[in-house]
Every structure is written in structure tokens, then in C-alpha cells.
Amino acid sequence: LINLTINGKAVAVEEGTNILEAAKRVNIKIPNLCYLHIDDIGFDNSCASCRVCLVNADGRLVPSCATLAKEGMKVQTNTPEIIEFRKGVVELLLSDHPQDCYTCTKCGSCGLQDIAVQLGIKKIRFEGERLEKSKDNSSFSIMRDNDKCILCRRCETMCNKVQTVGVLSGINRGFSTEIGTFFETDLAKTECTFCGQCINVCPTGALLEKDNTDEAWELLAQKEKPVMVQIAPAVRVGISEEFGLKPGTISTGKVVAALKALGFDYVFDTNFAADLTIMEEANEFVNRLTKGGDLPIMTSCCPAWVNFCESQYPDLTKYLSTCRSPQSMFSPIARYYFADKVLDKKPDEVSVVSIMPCVAKKYEVKREELGEDGILDTDLSLTVRELARMIKSAGIDLENIEEENFDSPLGYSTGAADIFGVTGGVLEAALRTAYTDVTKEELSDDAIEFKAVRGFEGIKEATVNVAGTDVRVVAASSLGCARKLMDELRADLAAGREPKYHIIEIMACPGGCVNGGGQPFTNGDYEKVKARGAGLYTIDKNKPQRKSHENEDIKKLYDEFLGERGGHNAHKYLHTHYFD
Ligand code: HC0
Ligand code: SF4
Question: Where does residue 27 fall: left (phi above 0), alpha (psi -120 to 50 degrees), or beta otherwise?
């Protein structure tokens, strides 16, 4: 251990600890802006670009995030001289920053705004030179505004180190430095997967989701066209934090009520389609297993993962399940089944909106193959943050609103669907049904929880015995972890070895959709992500039915509309193809 003093307090830390982290151990908070460390996912951004965390260490001013604690070191964090320096640093950042807080989407959750308030900055002494920097609205998912970028490099670290996609990096030099893409290509034309993890670590408004709330208000204003809305599994736990509730609080009935209060005509559940996904995906797996098809089967519900697979591993797309994501199974069922059977409306006489914890879903809904006759199945996909903004601007008090139930029949789901929103959940849900498909027996209540694939490690593997066959499964979250599995699979195939797994679940966001690129900002607090995951497991535990094949409304849908699992209509509405 290394012994030092910080503001006169003795502290002992492991070798390799920086001063900023050492100070936290004795409850001394050093103001900081660019620094971010998320141990659980191996994210470390300590490039010391902003200099806000300056401290005096043995007589020298140093950035505390990038300076390691040393034996006998004496650190001062808050002398008048240091505070004055810090203010100067923040004023310099502000001198080159648009002064448009009141119209900036990030207002209220901006790290730069917070630090300016915290340091009590009242005026900016420097009239800085301004450079107009680039903006990029080329994609359906992400907006980049480099005028608001403070060059903290968090997005670059996320994209390169955690996601291993590598589309963002510093370009140009000196005052002209910007974060950009290779050859300043539009993001939409790069290998960006639209995972949105860069948005989640951006401290300012430089990276945000593409805002579609205006289009949503327009749909709601058209009274002649009913608007159906679906909410993703992870939304019901994510939204709570936007309204001051504890992370992980289950707000299902409150979101339903808020959506009705906003004017959505039918409030349905993506979970219903998650149960449907399991019916199709388990069936596809069992077919591949028993008839010698391509194994491993890889889950296909995460659109950023699908993008990643298509662009980085086109040789492996044949292993992806052909099942659409629940979002994209739900919409055709709403448009071609519910609209016709219940509302007596044509497919283009209704609108379908989805609320997702994700920004890649905005891209997914624009994929041409997820529509028919020029009508895309889903009109709009909004993030949890966008929904929260709509609820706030309508003056709806989510915390105290009286809970309501989903509409029927596309609103009922089993517990298997809820856990889709957390890493390992799709795999667990699929096993609950695949087991019964193969053995014709039901797993008992205490056997349906596959604990080995729960938890927040990046890669979790297990072997499950199904009717005498050892089924090897793995769940990975983050694209860096996906890359490890894909490199391994590619190497096994090239060497003629049997692939290591039968089923691979991949979610692009570390932890799964509970940490999606459209969720409330956590500022790197991974405990919030874990609490959201725990919330989903609680919902599952308390549901009367916990296996997708027990959902009576799904059985009815097959009887009335889809026919056989994996049959003609199922293929038409529930499956898709990929590009390589
Ligand atoms: Fe997810 Fe989904 S679980 S991707 O993780 O599969 O976004 O929550 O909606 O579609 O259901 C996100 C979350 C979904 C889909 C579902 C899947
Ligand atoms: Fe990289 Fe994901 Fe951001 Fe695209 S969305 S730039 S892949 S981190």
C-alpha cells in the first residue's frame, strides 16, 4: 500500500491508484470533467484534457486523474489558489462553447454546466476565439455537434476500447482539433453500429440521439389515425430515474398511464413480441440442432450487434437467427393483425411508435426489409430520454400518476420477456422454451432460473443438459466482448474445429438494454445499471407465467393469424435477412 495525505488526511491506497480516486476513499471530492472510470466494463478515460481536476501535489499543480499517488505525497485539493485555477480552466472551456444552455437538449444533465454551477462561475473573463466546427446529422440515430465538444475523448475511448468499433478519433491539430471520423465521412456511411454508447459517456450536448419528439407530437395530433405504442422491456425500469425515483424502480403501470395521458390510443408491450420471438427463435434453434443446421445460433434482436456482425463479420451472418427483433415483430402484428381484426383499419390507417432504451432501434425501423408495399412497419422509435422529455413537457407527474394496464391482446407477456432487457436474459428465456420443445416436459419453477448466465460480467458461459445433450451457451455484452467470441468462432471454423457453443447471445451495450444508448444518463455509475437489471428479474419472479410458450394470447395469435411456428406467415411477418 502507498501512504499519502490529502488535505492533511492520511490515506493508504494500492499502487497504481490516481490521486482523484485516492481522494474519494477519504470522501474528498475533486471536481472533474473529462475523467471517467467504469471498472465493471473496463472503461478508463484519464487523458487529462480538461485540467479541471488540478491539485497541488508536493508543490506542483498536476491533474489528479492522471497522476498516481506516491509514498509520502502531500496533496492539497482546495486551496484558494487551486480553486481560482480551476475556475479559470472552466471559463476557458466556456469561452469556446455556445452559450445556449436553455435550448440545449442536454440542459440539466450536462457535465460542463454542472461544473460551472458548482464552481460558482458568474462571468467569463475571456473573449475566446471561436471556430465553427462540424455537425453530423447523417444517421437516423445520432446527432453530433462538435461546437459543443470539449475534447474530453470519452466517446473515443468508448468506441475504440470498449466497443472496438473505432470510428471516432481526434482529427486535426491544435485549436482546430475535433473528434471526427476517418476522412470526415458522414457517420451514416461509416462502420458505426449506432450502439449509442458514445452518447452515454458524452458530458455535454455534443453527442445526442436524433430527436424525433416533434414527429411523435405530430402523429398524436392526427386524430383520425389511431397511434399504437409499444414499450421495450428495459423502459419500465429505466424511466424511473428521469423522475427522481430510485434506480431499478419498476414503473410499468405508470409509463402506461403516462402514455395514455399523452394521447396514445393503444398502449401495448414489446414484451408480447419478446414472447413471440422466443417461440420462433427456440423453434429455429431446435430445428438447427436436430436437423444439422448452422450452429451456433446467434441472437439477432440487438440492432447494433446485427450492424456490427454485418460490417465486421459478414462471413458469420449466416449464424444469426433469422428472427426479427421483438420491436420489429411487434409492429407488423399491430399493423396487419390488430388493425385489421380489432379496428377494421387498413395497414396505412394506423401509426406504430416504439419506446426503446436504444438509439440503434431508430436505424432498425428504417431498414427497408422491415416493411411492406412501401410502408415501414414502425413509424417512429423514441428513446426513454425522449419519452421522459415528452412526459415532462405535458406536465404529467409520473411519480404520482395512477397506474394503468396495457391494452389487450398485445399487452400480455410472461416473465421470460421482461428479462430480455438485461444481458443473458434472451438466452435464459430461450432455454426455458427450447427445453420444453425438445423434452416435451416443463422445467420446474426452481429450475427455470439459469443463474450462470445472470450477472454483469462481459462474457458468461454455461452448459445445460437438454434430454441428454450438453447444450453449450454463452452471453456477451459490449461489442468488444462480441469481437472476442466472433474471433474465436472464426478461428474454430477456419481450423475445422467444432464451434465451442450452440447458442450465442449478444447485446451491444455493456449490461444489455438496461444500459442502452437511449437510457437516462448514469454518468458512469454502473450500480444504476445493475439496479435496473435487478428490477427486471424482480418483475419476472413475480409474474404468474414465466415461460413464453405459456402465453395464451400468443397461442391465439398463432391460431388466428400466424399458423405454424416457423411457417409461411411466421416467416413473412417475423423473420428477416441480413446483408454481407
Ligand atoms: Fe431491448 Fe429487445 S430487449 S433489444 O435488449 O430482444 O432496445 O429493453 O426492446 O426489440 O424485447 C432494446 C430492451 C428491446 C427488442 C425486446 C430484444
Ligand atoms: Fe462508436 Fe457506438 Fe458511438 Fe457508433 S454509436 S460512434 S459504434 S460508440
Answer: left
